[in-house]
Amino acid sequence: MFKLLIKYIKPYWWQAILLVVAVTAQVYCTLSLPAFMASIINEGIVAGNHDAIWCSGIFMLLLAAASAVGALVSSYLATYIGANFSKDMRRDVFMKVLNFNLSDSDKFSVASLITRTTNDINQVQQTAIMILNMMLRAPLFCVTSLVRAFQTAPEMSWIIAVAVAGTLGTIILIMSLVIPKFKIFQKLLDKITLITRENLTGLRVIRAFNNEKIEKEKFEKTNQELTKTIIFVDRIIELQNPLINIIFNGTALLCIAVGASLLTKDIAYLGNMTAFSEYVTQFMISILMLSILFIMLPRASVSAHRINDVLKNPNHFNWKKSTVGVPSVAPSVEFKDVTFSYNGASDAVLSNISFTAEAGKTTAFIGSTGSGKSTLINLIPRFYEASTGEILVNGINVKDFEKDDLMKRIGFVPQRGALFSGTVKSNIAFGAPNATMKEIEKAAEVSESAEFIKKFADGYNHHIAEGGTNVSGGQKQRLSIARAICKNQEIYIFDDSFSALDMKTDKKLRAGLKSITKNSVVLIVAQRINTIKDADQIVVLDQGKIVGTGTHLELLKNCKVYNEIVKSQYSDAEYAAELKEANA
Q: How many CB atoms lie within 10 A of CB 255?
């Protein structure tokens, strides 16, 4: 945890130095007060010297004011450093997650990442502020109070040893009980976030299957476990205050009792006894602050470890700082004997994939569920890394591209259309923030979105809810396609992006795409034969291998897998007609 703290505090080193100065000044001024109080008693009250009382009193007022200023400055600086510290940490975690590839995304659940970015960072921030406030102040108070107490009244110094033993025993007892619960607490918090997120995103499915009761019971079970853990931890921690108070008050009574016995020998010892009691009080307060810190540290340490897991997650591949070589002017995508396996998997998802997709032509991919279609096209923008073989974009290996240089060439439409909270306009222009209104409207027309957009009261300024929950599945897909079109790319990838469209809209949309993709590579993953029937090249996949490449009619005649797919989707009469045309 401390490595993480040092890393993020380092940019604010001069504020940290000022903090140290302010804390040192506060400690010095505060611990000088008992000595002046002893002087007032011994040299002023006992000796009847009013000048000594006034002189020492004025110095005490000045020291108290200086101590207050030091406390205010140190608190401000600790809060300032802590707030900026957490801001930087949130930024780094967010940027790390943005740069995750799909394998990394599978490693950390969305719910866990949300908890780590919010609750865990807040926990570390609170502890960091407390460390900045107390880690220097408390030890300084402890050591200085101890030294001055021994110098003031060495006969009573054994009382401090008794107080320390009692306090340390209490802290060790409390920490041994609560530390194991902190890890359980964070895991349960992850689970609560996961269940809440799943229920919010799957609300329609839950209602459709009438499973509200089951989901409620699942949530209640986890919620009860979390509540019990919180109650247990809070009860144990709350024991600290009464136990420390008992030790604190017992020490004060012991000081009075021992001091009173010494006063019978020498009344002048009154000032020393009073100063000693103040030093012991300051010592006990600093011990109490440290005990609170030591109890918070284990929980913050768990949170820091979880944050570090994200920040230190190794990159499975690195991007070049600049593209190696000069990409060809004519867009193209070529796979050369590509094989891909998921991390830790024994079997390959894709085996020996080779094909070339050229500019101005449409290359389609079809196959049964799990044949590797989506995985294949996810290798092009490097969402996954090919295990062996080469993937060339415009003649350059994707591994030799600078990230922005590769991504600016690709317009990608995923299986599940993802829309962001904002407007229709902002979603279409998501990949091209400088697009003109004319370009946005053109993209909407080609994607067959213009008609339903016009029906919105606010048109292109119509509000889109988070995840596009206030538009239909077909509208969401068309807006996602419009977003890719507006980007005006060299390579368009459509990952089963026409599945929610009716046949008529599908046909019109593909016809519109042809007019704007004359000089682009178009890659389409689809389940429906009608969507890819007119493609220039169809690649048929089965169990991760290419079993056929060609046009619709060529594959119908020569590829058994493709023939079976056509037969399953067409009526007997339609299939017979297609087969007759293929054999003509």
A: 24
pLDDT tens track for 357-398: 999 899 999 988 888 888 899 899 888 888 899 999 999 999
Measured N-to-C along each axis, helices 437-446 and 503-516 cross at an angle, to the nearest 10 degrees, of 130
Exposure of 96 by Cβ count < 10 A (0-12 exposed, 13-18 middle, 19+ buried)? Answer: middle
**Residue 415 neighbours by CB distance under 10 Å:** 15
CA–CA distance, 526 with 521 (Å, rounded to integer): 16
Count of other CB atoms within 10 angstroms of residue 518: 9
Asked if 127 and 300 count as a contact pair (C-beta separation under 8 A), the reply is yes
Specify if 331 maps to a domain.
Answer: yes
Vertex 115 angle, CA 113 and 120, to 5°? 110
Work out whether strand 491-495 and strand 521-525 pair parallel, antiparallel, or are unpaired.
parallel
Residues 11, 453: Cα–Cα separation, whole Å: 48
Token code pair at residue 167:
């306090």
Pairing relationship of beta strands 422-423 and 410-413 according to DSSP bridges: unpaired
Helix (H) or strand (E) holding 352: strand 350-358
Pairing of strands 388-393, 396-397: antiparallel
**DSSP-based three-state secondary structure for 515:** helix
Number of domain units in the chain: 3
Residue 425: partners with Cβ closer than 8 Å, 6 or more residues away: 437, 440, 460, 461
Domain at 253, CATH number: 1.20.1560.10
Q: What is the pLDDT of residues 289-328, one digit of tens each?
A: 777 777 677 777 777 888 888 888 776 667 888 888 888 8
The DSSP secondary-structure symbol of 43 reads: I
**Could you tell me the end-to-end alpha-carbon distance of the chain, in angstroms, rounded to an integer?**
74
Q: Among 157, 106, 369, which residue's Cα sits nearest to residue 280? A: 157
Residue with tokens 């020998």: 265
Residue 336 DSSP SS3: strand
Q: pLDDT tens-digit profile of 144-161?
A: 777 777 777 777 777 777
Helix (H, G, I), strand (E, B) or coil at 349: coil
Q: How far is CA 169 from CA 138, 284, 285, in A?
A: 18, 14, 16
Pairing of strands 388-393, 332-340: antiparallel
Q: What does the block give as tokens for 275? A: 């100063």
SS3 call for 321: coil
Does 470 lie in the same domain as 457? Answer: yes
- Answer for the pair 103, 384: CB distance below 8 angstroms, yes or no: yes
pTM of structure:
0.68
Strand partners, 523: 363, 493
What are the strands, taking DSSP E only, across 437-569? 463-464, 491-495, 521-525, 537-542, 545-550
- Asked which of 251, 282, 311 is the last residue of a domain, the reply is 311
Q: Are strands 545-550 and 537-542 parallel, antiparallel or unpaired?
A: antiparallel
Residue type at 549 in one-letter notation: T
CA-closest candidate to residue 551, choices 525, 533, 573, 577:
533
- Are residues 393 and 473 located together in one domain of the fold? no
Alpha helices, H only, 328-429: 373-378, 403-407, 424-428
Same domain, 305 and 362: no
Instruction: Return the amino acid letter for 435.
Output: A
